[in-house]
Amino acid sequence: MKQCSKWVAVLLLAAVGSVMASSGGLRVEQAWARATPVVAPVAGGFLIIANDGGKDDRLLRVESDIAQRVEIHQMRNDAGVMRMRQVTEGLPIAAHGRLVMAPGGYHLMLIQPKRALLEGGHFDATLVFQRAGRVKATFQVRAMGAGAH
Question: Whose C-alpha in 4, 41, 74, 145 is 20 to 30 A from the C-alpha of 55?
Answer without folding.
Answer: 74
